[in-house]
Amino acid sequence: MSKPTPDHVDADPSLLVPEVLLLADGPVRDHAVVVADGVFAAVGPAGRLVREHPHLTPVHLDGHLLMPGFVDAHHHLTQSFGSSLAFGEPSEIFRRVWVPLEGALNEESTYLSAKLAALESLRGGFTTVAEAGTRAPVDTGVVGRAAADAGIRCVLGHVVCSDPDTPPRAAADALALAEKHLSRYEHHDLVHPSLALPTPESAPERTLRATADLARETGAVLQIHVNEHLAGVERSLLQHGRRPLEYLHAAGALGPWLLGAHATLLTPRELTLLRESGAAISYNPVASAWKGNAVAPASAMAEAGIRFGLGTDGTRGDAFRLVDAAETAQRLAFGLHTGDSSCGGGWTWLEHATRLGADAVGLGSLTGTIAQGRAADFLLVDLAVPELAPSWDLPWELVRLTGRDQITAVVVAGRLRLWRGWPLDWDGHALVETAARVGREIGARAPVTRVHPTSTEHRTRSGSR
């Protein structure tokens, strides 16, 4: 059995013949892809592609699956220095942890934090991330530069407004800056501009409407946290007399341009609003487990035809663990009560983590699937491991048994970005070392407030043995 090398995968053009190819309809054998100029130039039976491209030497990837790269539909790239600070904390930690932590960043540390998160995402099999907008006091372009330098595709959110008391003149200035952000990345290879608002209740109705209008007119995605925590729902009811999603609808901001994060607390009426409006949701199961009040009814969304992707919320950049969590959360929250033993049959979560996730973040015509003309954003996954011997049902196995340690290569826009977990064209180890040092400095001076101490100290205080 021959083993692939970086040169095999990074050649342009290249004719790749994996043992298994994961297409939209499922895994197939004896198929191949031609990668050229950053896209899949051809996809089809291996014999036919070999005949049609005699100038290319077939690269046989024995023991490997070639599959679409995963899409993280909700991330916070500039929170990577404080990921474990959220462990064991009650909900709505953004006021106590994320606002002070990101507020302590400068341009250098913002870049380091975002690039570190991008590297983690690539290592976990994500080729695209949707960055929901940083609170760091720097230009959004710093985050875009970090993502592009790391080599990941990024839907880059620019926060338009985070203060419900913003006067009209300041709101108009914020929209002008948002327009500049959209123009700056209009033709960028890897960075795709997006607009962002923290929550519906954080913006006056006129700002919601104006931002949504700008998103609709420009074809940009508007990212916003919706119905995540009980406190947020109650705050919206007190301030606006409506639940967050209802408030968006009343403001004319609910439509196909919207990417709502979390949506864990939805009434039947709000599910209907989502379906009828064509809005998309990021289902973030790990965030629900770590710091949430509830689990989004993703199985019901899938059945109703509501658009959604899977997001990490910056919890951990591991795509295989994310799809496992997506299925597990649905089974524990809903399936056990109804006797649903399949909870989407495995393939549902793969679809929403790839092709349908790309649609949710506004890139459905560009990435998320292995098809002619789509961006060559893909993974090579080692199948020759004990966990998959023998293999009976690969989609289910990818959800429940596969791990990021099996990822041999990560390719974005036709370029090899990682080989066995590390970049070959820049020093990932040096980045980790620098980020660890700077991150500790940031954490030491940021006015973070935690309910619980570190786990070791907590154990000592509790008297556990």
From TrEMBL:
The keyword Hydrolase applies. Residues 445-465 are annotated as: Disordered. Gene3D superfamilies: Metal-dependent hydrolases, Urease, subunit C, domain 1. SUPFAM superfamilies: Composite domain of metallo-dependent hydrolases, Metallo-dependent hydrolases. InterPro entries: Amidohydro-rel (IPR006680), Metal-dep_hydrolase_composite (IPR011059), Metal_Hydrolase (IPR032466), MTA/SAH_deaminase (IPR050287). GO terms for molecular function: hydrolase activity, acting on carbon-nitrogen (but not peptide) bonds. Residues 455-465 have a biased composition (Basic and acidic residues). It comes from the Bacteria. Residues 66-416 form the Amidohydrolase-related domain. Keywords: Hydrolase. This is Cytosine/adenosine deaminase-related metal-dependent hydrolase. It comes from Nocardiopsis aegyptia.
